[in-house]
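Record type: monomer structure entry
Structure origin: computed from sequence
Chain ID: A
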Amino acid sequence: MRTLAILLAASTISSCMTAPQPTQRSERAEARLQQELAGLSAGQPVSCIANYRADQMIVIDDSTLLFRDGTSRVWRNDTQGSCNLLGAGYTLVLRSSGSALCRGEIGQVTDLRSGTTVGSCVLGDFVPYTRAAR
């Protein structure tokens, strides 16, 4: 009996330790992402971007966000976890404590009409996409 309890505990612990599986992007979302990033090249990821660099958020799917900064640069953020329902009548509310958006900040998926929070996710690294130099 004791052996069974140990096996059950080990099984439970090992199931919690499995790596999260990447979410599969729909064909529509993948096409939109490719369209938004067409002609742009990825740069080195950074952990924070200035708030003024995030003046236009584009929702690709529940786990991919793009931020336009008023130039030809686009910042891609693949969230840690899924922002379920994002874009389906809901928006992501980011409450930055400073003048930057940073990896690890929690965004709340909110119904703006009622103010109800229906989920949350964590921002990942910001990858800059810019036009390749000619």
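Annotation 1: The longest helix spans residues 2-16.
Annotation 2: The longest strand covers residues 116-122.
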